[in-house]
Write a structure and sequence with these properties.
By secondary structure, this protein is mainly alpha-helical. It has one domain. Helices cover 75% and strands 0% of the residues. It is built from ten helices and no strands. Helix 2 packs antiparallel against helix 4, helix 3 packs antiparallel against helix 4 and helix 4 runs parallel beside helix 6. The longest helix is centred in the first third of the chain and has 25 residues. It starts with a helix and ends in a 7-residue tail after the last helix.
Length: 193
């Protein structure tokens, strides 16, 4: 019963569309009809301003972290459950029921999940993201290189196997959610922030 409750909580938290709410509150616009149509922090930054993009980044990371943090407290010896809650939060962000399963790309939510389970890997990934974004102003490149960095750091630091596999799974999922960005990068038509 506790396990099911934690997974449902992870799904609920992950599905909260902060990008939609923040953009509507600040600009009155529907983020899904503006810019790239994505509900994530990058599109919010383009539509509502960078300050609000950062706010959504924080909120989307927090919703990924919260359910996983509760799982680690309620079931400290169940890494498989921690992973399950993290994956559920990520997938609920990408496919939120409230938005007809059209959500974000999951980068910030994955960051929040990994901050709880693999803090050094998550921080290393975030630093790489920030440096790449500052240098090239292309969020997708920073996101994917940050995700890859998190996987590498998790592996080389000897993190628990379920958590390393989680980092790898989230990275592969982000490759899928960024498939359009990858195509635009290949054609040199990706938008800068």
């Amino acid at each position: 019963m506790l396990e099911a409750s934690l997974i449902l909580l992870g799904a609920f938290l992950g599905s909260l569309p902060f990008g939609v709410w923040v953009t509507r509150a600040v600009t009155g616009k529907d983020i899904q009809q503006e810019g790239s149509g994505n509900i994530g922090a990058t599109n919010v930054a383009r539509v509502a301003g960078k300050t609000w993009g950062v706010a959504v980044l924080f909120l989307d990371a927090a919703k990924g972290a919260m359910g996983v943090w509760l799982a680690t407290r309620c079931l400290p010896d169940s890494p498989g459950m921690h992973v399950a809650v993290g994956v559920t939060a990520f997938m609920s962000h990408v496919f939120p029921v409230w938005l007809r399963f059209k959500g974000g790309k999951g980068v910030a939510t994955a960051l929040g999940v990994l901050l709880v389970l693999l803090p050094w890997a998550a921080l290393a990934g975030f630093v790489v993201y920030a440096v790449v974004l500052a240098a090239f102003r292309v969020s997708s490149v920073g996101s994917l290189l940050g995700g890859l960095t998190a996987v590498i750091v998790a592996f080389v630091t000897g993190a628990p196997r379920p958590y390393v596999l989680l980092a790898l799974t989230l990275f592969w999922a982000m490759l899928w959610t960024h498939r359009g960005n990858l195509s635009r990068l290949l054609h040199r038509s990706e938008r800068k922030l």
